[in-house]
Amino acid sequence: MSEPLFPQGELGLAVFLNAGDPAGRLADLAHLLDARGVDVLELAVPFPNSPTDGALIRRSAARALAHGTTLDTVLADLADLTPHLKRLKVVLLADWSHSLRHRDPATTARAVADAGAAALLIHALPPRLRPAWHHALRTQGLPQVTTCYPASTPEVLTAAAHGATGAYVYLVAHYGRSGTTPAHGHRALADTVTALRRAAPTTPVAVGFGVKTAADLAAVADSGADAAIIGSAAVARIEHAHTEGLDPVTELSAFLTDLRPARPPHPDAPGGRTTPGTTTARTTPGTPARTTTREEQPAC
Fold first, then answer.
1. How many CA atoms lie within 13 A of 274 on its CB side?
2. Rounded distance, CA 20 to CA 65, Å?
3. Rounded CA gap, 32 and 23, in Å?
4. What is the pLDDT of residues 8-67, one digit of tens each?
5. From the CA atom positions of the chain, what is the Rg in Å?
6. C-alpha separations of 20 from 96, 181, 274, 286 in Å
7. Cβ neighbours of 199 (radius 10 Å)
8. What domains are there in the chain, each with its CATH number?
């Protein structure tokens, strides 16, 4: 069984970035996230004109595409990177139409697993093709990240929870574009988190869209979710570095410092994974007592 992507006893953290933005700095950024105790790098193979992304992430993808970033270049970079990571796990996000349409599912799943990715999130996978891709991923032992929304039907929530065995369910906080905040706040997702957990008690739930600050992290924890996904807020610091001629690693490090205190760089460090000063209590009514976000169309 693969190692869980998020810790128990505290709110996990995933950071989304587009591979290739900035060019040649993936390893530096990943090692920073690793050292700062981030659990997951949600790494997107860039694709144009994403219908679920705001202008910020679209601009990031355009910069990466202009540098010639493709699925093949990303897999090559991952194969060099992942053996040197201590805590950080890389979840690869690939758009079906742009990156996967002309690829064989079995061959591609094997290549993604061999590169060291911990899971795959397929953006906008057509329903008729899901069985073939799900079979290919299961054959390679590569977990899949599934997605759902608060407004998803009970059937979709159940399918998402069961389909994410070994990875996590990405609970998109609301319909809209990345970087926007749900009208009723992240605590209002508690009922959806509870429904997902009832369907699959051991499958982690990660919340994304509009998670930007330490207060947002606390609200996600209060919803009962296992992790938060930071997307546009992190990409904004990369863009700021690009615009102002600054070091992107320094900019991202400053953002993480503002977000929450640093965590130990590795689970073997004294004290394990407990993070002083972070919100860990889960207060969702009816959920188990275990304590404690890129976007796609529903994958279930």
1. 5
2. 7
3. 16
4. 889 999 999 999 999 999 999 999 999 999 999 999 999 998 887 889 999 999 999 999
5. 17
6. 19, 26, 32, 43
7. 16
8. 12-259 (3.20.20.70)
Cα(117)–Cα(2) distance, rounded to whole angstroms?
A: 12
Q: Can you tell me the distance from the alpha carbon of 119 to that of 21, in angstroms, rounded to the nearest whole number?
A: 21
pTM for this model (two decimals): 0.86
Distance between CA atoms of residues 18 and 48, nearest Å: 12
Q: The tokens of 277 are what?
A: 């000063």
Output the six-digit token pair for 109.
């799943």
- For 137, the 3-state DSSP assignment is helix
Cβ-contact 77, 116 below 8 angstroms: no
Active site residues: 42, 53
Please tell me the number of Cα atoms within 13 Å of 223 on its side-chain side.
33
Q: Which of 182, 164, 129, 175 is nearest to 295 (CA)?
A: 175
Q: Which two tokens stand for residue 48?
A: 């144009």
Angle at alpha carbon of residue 262, lines to 252 and 33, rounded to 5°: 45
**Quick check: 17 and 41 in contact, CB under 8 A?**
yes
CB 204 within 8 A of CB 5: yes
> What residue type is assigned to position 289 of the chain?
A
